[in-house]
Specification:
The chain has 383 residues and is mainly alpha-helical. It is 77% helix and 0% strand. The protein folds into two domains: 2-109 and 183-373, Growth Hormone, Chain: A, CATH 1.20.1250.20; 117-174. It comes from Mangrovactinospora gilvigrisea.
Length: 383
């Protein structure tokens, strides 16, 4: 489904068609991402599970970092005159290869018994999240009219009802979208909140850095993608050390990673002010490498630490909750930090001030992550 939706994005003839195809991409991602985490949880134990989760975290981080460069190269190359459409066409052969290799490389891990889709729960949580995100994205530009506050109130009601519906379904022996029993595990409930906040601090950073480089300093997609290599280099080095660090420090490896990432954001903010409107943006590279190293230490072991205590029978549900927390965190981060960025942009032609101020909440969020790590059980590890 994701592969077909990618082809539809590439073939889109209007903005509406592109948005529709992107929605289908999101639905496809929501279907398969929890299965990846569930398969790892159900199919591996002990040290093997820790290594599998580390591989998952490494792949996610590399995709976030090097995807910027690959996208820039494809757009700059303008293969066959397709321009931006190549960033969607590339998913087609990759997706086809993944489907072909799936049966050969991924072990089967079916659940026991038949389950029914929790339609009511799915509708409630989807509507609730839209009711939160939409006013955050549109509210500032429209002057926070009445509908934005009504939307927030509706979100609280919808998400509260979702919790009640899930508890009632579980009590009646049904198959809720989210298994309430999972949140009785301290390591999981604290870890999900931690993952949400962490992704608020990471996902939005890439977007607003790209806007600063491209709109503020006139870099093309390729130029900004090349600068992202600094973040990728830091990430690669730290990710190689993360498994050993997690085995030695346990949960505190997340603390070190989050604080290093916050420090990197601070160094970038100083560099942005030194660069001004006409200096070389290459001065951002040291801070970007530092932030990338923090991401490598935090992101790679995080799934393993959060899901370490989950029973195999709850693997798919737990994976779905964690994946949703990561995606919602990224969306919330973009919306919330966007209030700061666009609120400061105004006549700031080079966007230096806007980007600097947007780094403040990102650094604060990383510090909050370091504090939330302390809520995890002392023995929390990846295995």
């Amino acid at each position: 489904l994701f592969t077909l939706a990618s082809a539809a994005c590439a073939l889109a003839g209007s903005t509406g068609e592109l948005i529709g195809a992107r929605i289908v991409q999101g639905l496809a991602t929501a279907l398969y991402m929890p299965q990846v985490l569930g398969t790892i949880t159900a199919g591996f134990d002990g040290a093997k599970r820790a290594r599998a989760f580390a591989g998952y975290g490494l792949a996610m981080g590399l995709a976030a970092v090097f995807g910027q460069l690959i996208g820039g190269v494809l757009i700059h190359a303008d293969l066959f005159g397709l321009g931006w459409r190549t960033i969607f066409w590339i998913n087609v052969p990759v997706g086809a290869a993944a489907v072909a290799l799936l049966r050969r490389l991924v072990p089967e891990s079916r659940g026991t018994g038949r389950t029914r889709l929790d339609v009511a729960g799915t509708a409630l949580v989807a509507a609730g999240l839209v009711a939160v995100l939409l006013p955050l994205i549109q509210g500032r530009a429209q002057g926070w009219p009445l509908w934005t506050w009504l939307s927030f109130a509706a979100a609280a009601a919808l998400l509260g009802t979702f919790v009640l519906v899930q508890r009632r379904s579980a009590a009646r022996g049904g198959t809720p979208l989210v298994e309430p029993a999972l949140f009785r595990q301290r390591s999981f409930s604290a870890g999900v909140v931690l993952a949400l906040v962490y992704n608020m601090a990471m996902g939005s950073f890439f977007l607003y850095l790209a806007l600063y480089l491209q709109q503020g300093h006139g870099l093309g997609a390729l130029g900004s993608g090349v600068l992202f290599l600094a973040t990728g280099g830091g990430y690669l080095v730290a990710s190689k050390l993360s498994e050993r660090a997690a085995a030695r420090w346990g949960r505190q490896v997340l603390t070190v990673g989050a604080l290093l990432q916050a420090l990197g954001y601070g160094v970038i903010a100083v560099a942005v002010q030194l660069v001004g409107g006409h200096g070389s943006v290459a001065w951002l590279a040291p801070g970007m490498a530092m932030a990338g190293a923090g991401m490598g230490l935090a992101l790679v072991p995080m799934p393993g630490i959060v899901l370490a205590g989950v029973e195999p029978r709850h693997a798919a549900s737990a994976g779905g909750v964690l994946s949703t927390a990561q995606q919602v965190g990224g969306a919330l981060g973009i919306a919330v930090v966007g209030l700061v960025f666009y609120g400061r942009a105004g006549a700031d032609v080079h966007l230096g001030g806007a980007f600097t101020w947007s780094l403040v909440p990102l650094a604060v969020l990383c510090t909050v992550v370091a504090a939330l790590v302390q809520a995890l059980p002392r023995g929390a590890r990846t295995s």
